[in-house]
Amino acid sequence: MEQGGLEKYRYRFNPVNGYWFTSFLLRELRAKGGNGGGCFESTLDIGLSKGTVCLEGNYVKLGELVLDLDAITPSEVDRVVVYDAPQKSAYEVLKHVPDGFYKLKAIAIDKAPTLEVNGIHMHRITGIDPWSDAVSKVWAAVVKRGNTVLDTCMGLGYTAIASTRRGAREVYTFEVDSNVVWVAERNPWSRGLSSPSVRVYFGDVTKLIYSLPDAFFHRVIHDPPRFTKSTGDLYSLEFYRQLNRVLKRGGVLFHYVGEPRKHGAPSILKGVKNRLENAGFKVLRFDREAQGYVAIKVA
Q1: Range of the domain at 291
Q2: Distance (Å, rounded) from C-alpha 47 to C-alpha 29?
Q3: pLDDT digits (tens, 9 = 90+) for 77-119
Q4: Are both 140 and 212 inside the same structural domain?
Q5: Cα(286)–Cα(269) distance, integer angstroms
């Protein structure tokens, strides 16, 4: 499906090819190497796979590639350095903008990183890792093999990718912020966004949703940023009506809202539930593991 006017927003996701270094990885290499150095099996893509890494003095050797530790050591413990192979350069996955910053935030040597925007994490990282956070949302949405899924807010793409791993035939995902896309393309855990099963659109989903057809999706995963004045449209009755319109009868919506009684959530929770019901959804429950509402389209 490609509706009129939507094709021009289609984005070709272009992941960076390289090696990723975190403080967690370098600490492990130094501990294994001691003063003598040596070759070890470790991860060069933040836990997605393992390969051989050789340490000799102040240098990391990857085949013919030799990298100075000083050039690949993050300036802060939770930052990520990527050696961009096509560009032959190492840099932190960090982007400063006039009103703040976007950062790929490492949480462990082998766990999916999160996106941090102006100090706010885009995934839960307390008692859960970002990938498991995304998987819990996909399970709450009951994504099944052959489903067509709408993932309203791409971010690093974990829910879209997890949906394809659950068997979704196609996932449509939308991202309005070019800085988020820049970070995602430099995150190895986001590579799955380049899959033929994932359609990435660059634009505001609250506007582009009008180009999507009626009763097209089996599942909708709505994981918006925290409610603020600038994100209010993603929580509006009109947008919920559009989500209902594009969902098939009997289709499932999962709407992440976060933990009750944090950040003023009780009133937000009540408002979200009321608007979903006014938009035509039947709210089944609040899923405490995934921290959001599970609802179905009943008519």
Answers
A1: 7-13+124-297
A2: 14
A3: 999 999 999 999 999 999 999 999 999 999 999 999 999 999 9
A4: yes
A5: 9
